[in-house]
Specification:
The chain is 0% helix and 61% strand. It is an all-beta fold.
């Protein structure tokens, strides 16, 4: 089990910038990747960005070029820098720690979520 605590988020106008951070504790050695998901009202949770322990990143198409995921292995933290925010980015954002088995990622833990609201 990996415990995650998010910080950041809040309210911003369209075109603005926000940053999210997440600290991991517990069974850190099992982590193969860290990710951010989001869930908007009445929509399914979706993967926004992932970064592996090797530093390989992957992004949702709609955030490419605007969001940047990064990690600090020494501090066991992962961050998400969100630029040029749009109203459709409004959602609860969740930090996620992932293990890997057979080439497939699986969840080791979830943060409680933090609200990001982008006003038009």
């Amino acid at each position: 089990q990996v415990d995650l605590v998010e910080s950041g988020g809040g309210l911003v106008q369209a075109g603005g910038t926000l940053g999210l951070s997440c600290a991991a504790s517990g069974r850190i050695s099992r982590i193969s990747a860290m990710a951010w998901f989001r869930q908007a009202p009445d929509k399914q949770r979706e993967l926004v960005a992932r970064i592996t322990t090797d530093g390989v990143t992957d992004y949702l198409d709609s955030v490419k070029g605007r969001f940047t995921i990064s990690r600090d292995s020494a501090k066991n933290t992962v961050s998400l820098q969100m630029d040029s925010l749009k109203p459709e980015d409004t959602a609860v954002y969740f930090c996620n720690a992932q293990g890997i088995s057979g080439g497939h990622y699986y969840a080791l833990g979830w943060g409680p979520g933090t609200q990001v609201t982008v006003s038009s």
